[in-house]
Amino acid sequence: MVGVVLMAGFAGLMWLLYLAMLILAVVALVMAAVFRDDAYRAADKQNKGFWLIILGIAVAVNLLVPMLFLQLAGLVATIVFFVDVRPALRQVSGGGWRRRRGGSSSDGPYGPYNGGR
């Protein structure tokens, strides 16, 4: 009886993990599609088509192939996009929301950081 409850809990945890990996892959795919193709060249990253294919495969694997090894490979590609490619694309595309507001890179949540001066 206890084993059945533990297995049901583990299955629920794995389902949440699969869902989180799918959501991350979909968000990365949408973000990769939003950036312009010339931003990838300017950031010296693989081209837009490459990232759309890789992230599209990650989404398809998460939806269609319930093999954890393949899903983890898709998760690695998604993490690489979020950690390496997306920041470079945002930098060459004019930055994020803080730059559009006119702030600088040293601004904190309550205004500019002056180093305690």
TrEMBL record:
Keyword Transferase set for record: no
A family per Pfam: DUF2516
Region of interest called Disordered, as start-end residue ranges on this chain: 92-117
Transmembrane segments: 12-35, 50-83
Segments of skewed composition (Low complexity): 103-117
Superkingdom in the source lineage: Bacteria
UniProt keyword list: Membrane, Transmembrane, Transmembrane helix
Annotated protein name in UniProt: Membrane protein
Organism expressing this protein natively: Streptomyces humidus
